[in-house]
Amino acid sequence: MRIAVLSDVHGNVPALDAVLDDISRQGVEAVVCLGDHVSGPIDPAGAAERIMALGATCIRGNHDRWVLEADTRTDPWSSDRFARERLGAAQLEWLGSLPATAALGTAVFLCHGTPGDDEAAWLDNFYDGRTTTLPSEAEVAREAVGIAHKVILCGHTHIARTLRLSDGRLILNPGSVGMQLVRGTPDAHYAIIERRLGQWRTALIGVPYDTEAAARLAEDNGFPQWGEAIRYGWAGPESLG
What positions does the domain Calcineurin-like phosphoesterase occupy (predicted)? Predict the structure, then answer.
């Protein structure tokens, strides 16, 4: 089985289109989307439309919740409010219907942050300036207690990484399709997992796209801080505000 894994599109349609075009040549049998689909100042409605049309297995991320709560939160992120104001009723209904976790059969488990918390960083602790902290195996394994699936997929940190626990379970973060941070790559990131000869293999993929067009859309929509992050991929997470 060959599966494309997407996460953290953040409404970046130029990046998403480039990834979907690349996926179309990969011979995948399924697509999964790990959340934070629309929050961002580029094209939230366009991103929702494309993801809804995929027939993919989708879960919600913390920003998907926050988009839905943007009218009631006391201090909503401006990118969440921007998305909320541009989504149609059907798109908001779809977003509200997404589960926090999901599974593909008995082999693959999907979550956004960790299985129990969509705001928690898992394979990499969140950034402190330009520094991230790699947790120990014990810390990673603690969050996977009770998950019997051979493959566990997560997102949230925007850092593409894959590891294996000592018991053989594979945990994968595909990185972010739509917003690159800290690592200095502007490319749109996703992953492919494949079961071959009884083993699960991974490929972490970066796809170049028209970052200038995406950056200008963000800037034209009143989010100049997104421009630098989209163009160069060196900015910190404060650019997601």
Answer: 1-194
Question: What is residue 3's predicted lDDT score, i.e. its pLDDT?
Answer: 98
> Mind spelling out the 3-state secondary structure of the chain?
CEEEEECCCCCCHHHHHHHHHHHCCCCCCEEEECCCCCCCCCCHHHHHHHHHHCCCEECCCHHHHHHHCCCCCCCCCHHHHHHHHHCCHHHHHHHHHCCCCEEECCCEEECCCECCECCCCCCCCCCECCECCCCCHHHHHHHCCCCCCCEEECCCCCCCEEEECCCCCEEEECCCCCCCCCCCCCCEEEEEEEEECCEEEEEEEEECCCHHHHHHHHHHCCCHHHHHHHHHCCCCHHHHC
Whether pLDDT at 150 is above 80: yes
Domain ranges of the chain: 2-240
CA distance 172 to 69: 29
Neighbours of 95 (CB within 10 A): 23
The pLDDT value recorded for residue 235 is: 86
Interior angle at CA 44, CA 86 and CA 35, nearest 5:
130
**Does the structure show a pLDDT above 90 at 133?**
no
Residue 36 region by backbone torsions, left for phi larger than 0, else alpha for psi between -120 and 50, else beta? left
Superfamily of domain covering 2-240: Metallo-dependent phosphatases (3.60.21.10)
Please write the tens of the pLDDT for every residue from 80-109.
999 999 999 999 999 999 999 999 999 999
Mean pLDDT for all residues in the chain: 94
Q: How far apart are CA 172 and CA 182, in angstroms?
A: 19
